[in-house]
Amino acid sequence: MRSILTAQQNLARLYSRQMCTSTYAQSSTRISSSSVQRGLVVPYRFEGVFIAKGKEDFICTRNLVPGEALYGEELIFVQNEGGTEVEYRVWNPLMSNLANAIMCGVTNIWVKPGSRILYLGDDVCQITLSHLSDLVGLDGLVYVVGLSDVAVKMAEKRPNVITVFQKPSCIGKYRMVVGMVDVIYADIHSDEVHTITSNIIYYLRAGGHYLVYTRASNIYSTTRGKDPFAYHHRQKEFTPIEAVMLEPIDREYAMAVGGFRMPEE
What we know:
One of its GO terms (cellular component) is small-subunit processome. The chain is built from seven helices and 13 strands. With 265 residues, it is an alpha/beta fold. A seven-stranded mixed sheet has the order 9-8-7-10-11-13-12. The radius of gyration is 18 Å and the shape is globular. The model is unreliable at 1-8, 10-36 and 222-226 (pLDDT under 50).
């Protein structure tokens, strides 16, 4: 089984490298020492997420690409007990829906070191993607399916980001590249419900979880058919866990979290 997974990873990385042509080459920003902080960083309640303590507390992730900031975020250096330096990146909730959900009290994001994630969408948030890459580490993978130049550029610097330059609706075309995953993360629009649910059914392992950023009205409206996963809830394939309102930053949106083919308790 392990050899099959390794072969699939190698195939995925080969596919990703072929997509990363020189057209998309772009270096991350190396920030100046004036933007660097030294301080106390402690684990948060989600594995792989940390809190940087200071005049203000910030959530952060351990930087997979030391010395480089992607979007001008603060880098924090901490000396560990062994005398080596560990580098963290501040995760801005104003610029990432997932970070916002964490700050708004989501119970669990189900992403941890070693996880395999499928990120769906043409409009990929490079900030969320980069921190997901930090979270899963080199033992994990983040597959990105969509027509996203952002993801292609990021894959050049981050070996655990695998880009699949295909529309998420073309599910069968990337089956040889994308394996079964632990978590699916997606933004949802009214015309994409079928695409996202199909990817969940096709690629999310039994007992896995999905996090979907969507309009709150899609979840809370009593109008028949508004709930994007209503049919699958009735079929007991999708198990809704929680929906977190993203106020005050994003008042009209929520993060819907659920499980797929969950084992009976």
